[in-house]
Amino acid sequence: MKSTKEIEFVTLVQEHQNLIHKICRLYTNSDAEHKDLFQEITIQLWKAYPKFRGDAKFSTWMYRVGINTAISLYRKSKRRIQSFSFDDVSYKIPQTETYDDTQDQQLKSIYAALNHLDDISKAVIFLYLEDKNYKEISETIGISEVNARVKMNRIKKKLKTQLNP
Amino acid sequence: MDELELLKKDWQENQKFPKLSKQEIYALLHKKSSSIVKWVFILSLIEFGFWTILGFFIKDNEAQQRFDSYEMDHITIPLIVVGYLILGYFFIRFYKNYKKISSTDSVKLLMKNILDTRKTVKYYVLFNLVFLYVSLIIAVVIETNNNTDFQLITSKFTETNEYLMMYGIVALLTLLMMVALTGILLGFYYLVYGILLKRLKKNYKVLKKIEG
Questions:
Q1: Which of B3, B13, B17 sits opposite A163 (nearest CB)?
Q2: In terms of residue numbers, what domain contains A149?
Q3: Quick one: which of A32, A43, A33 has its CA closest to A74?
Q4: Staple partner for A74: which of A15, A119, B104, B186, CB 3.0–4.6 Å?
Q5: How many structural domains is chain B composed of?
Q6: Nearest residue on chain B to A13, alpha-carbon basis
Q7: pLDDT at A161 over 90
Q8: Chain A residues in contact with B10 (beta carbon < 8 A)
Q9: What is the ipTM of this complex?
């Protein structure tokens, strides 16, 4: 019976794997870190899977566990001294299909600014980018809806200041 | 264009990630198997330590001292050396299994490694049982040939021409002791390694289903 459960879990993760990749994209700075976080989230999801009752959508539950794992790892890694090379950061910048140098530079700066946000702010902006409303953001991260709005406004201000000094 | 709008547009349009197969995702979970194999290695070392410490404690007891007085070092020392060499071989195998399993990404290799580990543990248990039987038989032979009390009993039985029956009793007692020790040792190994092997077997079955 347990084997069926494992296969069911692996199938669900395979279907929704992009969601994990996106979390990794926001919380890591290199390919190696991306892979490590991907594995860690998958393992944490598996450990938490027996508690998944199915009353929420699998993807919603994945957001919650994935973000929590990324946050706790992010906090641990903050204790270590980090150094980013330009190559590491540029890894995160996706290639746009129509090449626009100004826009490309602007995106590079935005992603670099995102990199400086704190762990919770990253989670808020991630869910905002995923088109989640404030109610969903607050439920996923475990903060109040008002708090989510306040945080989002602060992030907007912070990004504006950083991008237009 | 507002920065956040630009970011959102880019975020939603540019999400090209490598697509992992089910096998690859399961391989990510193989940390479970690797930690089981690590425990097999650690437990074998703890077990070795346990028997060695036990050996030190029984060193001074009366039976051991009597046995030592027979001066059978030419038999016991090679037996101990061979035993330790084979144990050393098993430790290396357990360690190699652990190293291999923690560095593989391939499901096929992972499956092979699970089978290898299970096989190594089985051979390890088998070796310990055979070594126990051999040691027991050698100990009984040395004891019967050197123990003065036993020789006294032998002479009494020989007088009444019943020595065959006496050897029969000795053989029966040895056999009973072997059965009892086998039970104890197998029970001990079942508790120590059996549960880990069962978990490995379960992981293997799931990997096989996914591969299939």
A1: B3
A2: 100-165
A3: A33
A4: A119
A5: 1
A6: B25
A7: no
A8: 94, 96, 107
A9: 0.74
